[in-house]
Amino acid sequence: VQLVESGGGSVQAGGSLRLSCAASGFTYSRSCMGWFRQAPGKEREGVAAIDSYSSTTYADSVKGRFTISQDNAKNTLYLQMNSLKPEDTAMYYCAAARWYCRGWANSDLYNYWGQGTQVTVSS
Prior knowledge:
globular
């Protein structure tokens, strides 16, 4: 299984970015795909998750601003990030779990991780 993120970059506050995560070798009828982020000196935190039925869930800090989606035909996970704030600055990781999204914000749920893509938001 390989997860490869892309789409990070530097934007000004209020701007938008779309992250992508290309997944290969991961095909499970029950699965959970998630986005996490980690800022320097802080713990990794769950941002959003989507299960194999396309049910989504979000951290309170990004609700209404971020949208997680997936394109099963392309085996790609997305995170559309709008109205970005400086506090969104972090390394963003995608992750895959061979089970449902129960407890999605717990990183221990996930079996596979990407290498991360940096998002920097300036004020």
